[in-house]
Design goal:
This protein is an alpha+beta fold. It has one domain: Nuclear Transport Factor 2, Chain: A (Roll). It is 41% helix and 39% strand. The chain is built from six helices and seven strands; from the N terminus they run H-H-H-E-E-H-H-E-E-E-E-E-H. Strands 1, 2, 3, 4, 5, 6 and 7 form a seven-stranded mixed β-sheet that branches. The longest helix has 31 residues. The protein starts with a helix and ends in a 6-residue tail after the last helix.
Length: 164
């Protein structure tokens, strides 16, 4: 009987660890789908990453809701970037999961094609907030701050230093 109880405890601990890993991978995939969605002009895919009451906030824009994200992807400004050749690239996110909520901290770089190859157009610090929904993990908020020596991006990046 004691062996069965020990085995059940070990199995429950293993199940918990696997679920944590699955959450972590789902959030990595969620954050890293942003670039391919916006760089290909896939407005439905980009909007589909977000929960209904999301906020995407940067020094360039403030978007509320998936429809605003889709509109941004379809905008002339984004379409001009796509025509030039752009790549929105995220660093490996530092993910923290707390029940049905999670945060991912990343650097992002936006590369633009030029006659010399590629130029870095923008480097930013990002805080992505996520929520577990019936349909899986969805983004609820992204705060994006260009790294320009001001304190705002550093405040975001410090969040990656919390925890183990």
């Amino acid at each position: 009987m004691a062996e069965d109880a020990g085995l059940r405890e070990r199995l429950a601990a293993l199940e918990s660890r696997v679920l944590q890993l699955e959450d972590h991978v789902a959030i990595l995939r969620l954050v890293n789908r942003w670039g391919p969605a916006v760089d290909t002009g896939s407005s439905d895919a980009a909007a589909g990453l977000w929960d209904d009451d999301e906020v995407l906030e940067s020094d360039l824009s403030h978007l509320q809701g998936p429809a605003a994200v889709a509109e941004m992807v379809e905008s002339e400004g984004q379409q001009a970037l796509i025509r030039q050749g752009c790549a929105h690239v995220q660093s490996a996110p530092v993910v923290t999961v707390d029940g049905d909520h999670a945060t991912a901290i990343t650097y992002s770089q936006v590369y633009l094609h030029s006659e010399n190859g590629y130029d870095v157009w923008r480097v930013s610090a990002n805080q992505w907030e996520c929520r577990r929904t019936a349909g899986g993990w969805r983004l609820t908020r992204r705060v994006n701050r260009v790294i320009d020596g001001s304190p705002a991006p550093h405040t975001i990046l410090v969040g990656a230093l919390d925890g183990p």
